[in-house]
Specification:
Layout (H helix, E strand, L loop, with lengths): L1 H23 L7 H15 L4 H25 L21 H7 L3 H32 L3 H12 L9 H11 L6 H23 L4 H9 L4 H12 L1 H16 L3 H6 L8 H11 L4 H31 L5
Helix pairs in contact: 3-14, 4-14, 5-8, 5-11, 6-8, 8-11, 11-14, 13-14
C-alpha cells in the first residue's frame, strides 16, 4: 500500500512546480479604465507639438524669404521713391522700368555667355564623371582605384590656391579672354566631387543586375546606357544642378581669366552694373532677379532628386 502511494506522491510533487509556473505566467487582464488610460497617454505623446522646432523653422524661413522679398520689391520701385518710402513696403507705383534699363545695357549678351559656359561645362562634367564612376565601380584593377584616389585629392585643393598656375596655363594655351578659359577650369575643379557622388550612388546598384546584363550579352556601353543611367538619375540630376549653380555663380575665374566686355558672364556683369548703376539700386536688383531665374528654374525641375542624390551611399 505504501509502495503504491509513493509514486503517486512523487508524481504530485513533480506536477506541482509546472502548475505553479503556468499560474505565474498567466496574463492578468486589464480593466477598461486602465486600457483607456494607456491609450490616452499614447495619444498625448504622439500629438505633442514640437514648439521649439516649429519656432526655429519659421525663423529660418523668415531669414530666407525677407531678402528675396526685399530684392523683388525694390526692383519694382522707382529710383526717386527709394528713400521716401518704407524699404519693406509694397511700392506705391510699381514699375518695370528697372528691368528695361538692365536689358538695354547688353544684359542679354552677358546672359548668353553664362548660359553657354554653364551648359557646356555641365554636359562635359556629367559625361566624364559618369564614365569615370562606372569604371571605378565595375573595375577591380588596383590602378583604377589609385586613379580614383587621385580624383578624391582634387576635392582638397582650393581654387584660390591654384589661380596663378591656372592663369599661366590659360595664357600658354592661348585661351585668355575667351569663354573656353572659363569652361576648362570649371570642368577640372567640378569633376572630383561629381565622381565621388556618382560612385557612391552606383555602388548601391545590385551586382545581380550587372551580371544579368552580362549574361544577356550586353556590352559595357549598353550596360551603362540601359542600366546605370536610369538607376542613377537622381544622382545625375543632383550633380547637374549643383555644378550648374557653381559655374553660373563663379566670379574668380571670370575676373582673372577674362578682360573684354564681350566675354563677361553674369557675376562679373552684376559687378559692372553695380558701378554703372551706383545710385540706381532698383536697376542693380533687377539685374539680380533676372540672373537668378535660370538657376531657380533648374532647381524647381530637379528638386525631387536632390536629397536622394546627395545622401546616396553615405548611410552605410
Amino acid at each position: 500500500m505504501s509502495a503504491t502511494l509513493a509514486p503517486a506522491r512523487e508524481a504530485s510533487s513533480t506536477t506541482t512546480p509546472a502548475s505553479a509556473t503556468a499560474s505565474s505566467n498567466k496574463v492578468v487582464p486589464m480593466n477598461d479604465r486602465q486600457v483607456q488610460k494607456i491609450r490616452k497617454r499614447t495619444r498625448t505623446t504622439r500629438q505633442m507639438p514640437n514648439f521649439v522646432g516649429g519656432f526655429f523653422g519659421w525663423f529660418w524661413l523668415a531669414v530666407i524669404i525677407l531678402p528675396i522679398y526685399y530684392i523683388i520689391v525694390t526692383s519694382l520701385r522707382q529710383p526717386q521713391h527709394m528713400f521716401s518710402e518704407n524699404t519693406l513696403s509694397w511700392p506705391s507705383h510699381p514699375t518695370l522700368d528697372a528691368f528695361g534699363r538692365v536689358l538695354a545695357n547688353d544684359f542679354l549678351m552677358y546672359f548668353g555667355n553664362s548660359v553657354f559656359v554653364t551648359v557646356i561645362s555641365v554636359i562635359v562634367i556629367l559625361a566624364v564623371s559618369v564614365m569615370t564612376s562606372y569604371v571605378v565601380v565595375r573595375s577591380r584593377r588596383r590602378s583604377v582605384q589609385r586613379i580614383f584616389q587621385v580624383f578624391l585629392l582634387g576635392i582638397a585643393i582650393p581654387i584660390q590656391a591654384t589661380i596663378i598656375p591656372v592663369y599661366y596655363l590659360i595664357l600658354q594655351l592661348g585661351l585668355y579672354d575667351t569663354l573656353w578659359a572659363l569652361i576648362l577650369p570649371s570642368i577640372a575643379f567640378a569633376t572630383p566631387l561629381s565622381v565621388l557622388i556618382l560612385t557612391n550612388f552606383m555602388r548601391d546598384v545590385p551586382n545581380e543586375l550587372f551580371e544579368s546584363m552580362k549574361v544577356d550579352g550586353a556590352s559595357e556601353w549598353r550596360t551603362l546606357w540601359s542600366l546605370v543611367l536610369p538607376l542613377t538619375r537622381p544622382a545625375i540630376v543632383t550633380v547637374g544642378v549643383y555644378n550648374a549653380l557653381q559655374v553660373w555663380n563663379s566670379f574668380l575665374f571670370p575676373l582673372v581669366l577674362t578682360q573684354s566686355t564681350r566675354n563677361r558672364v553674369m557675376p562679373l556683369a552684376l559687378w559692372g552694373f553695380q558701378g554703372e548703376f551706383s545710385m540706381d539700386v532698383p536697376g542693380v536688383l533687377a539685374a539680380v532677379v533676372l540672373s537668378v531665374l535660370p538657376i531657380l528654374a533648374t532647381y524647381i525641375i530637379g528638386r525631387r532628386h536632390l536629397v536622394a542624390g546627395l545622401t546616396a551611399g553615405f548611410g552605410k
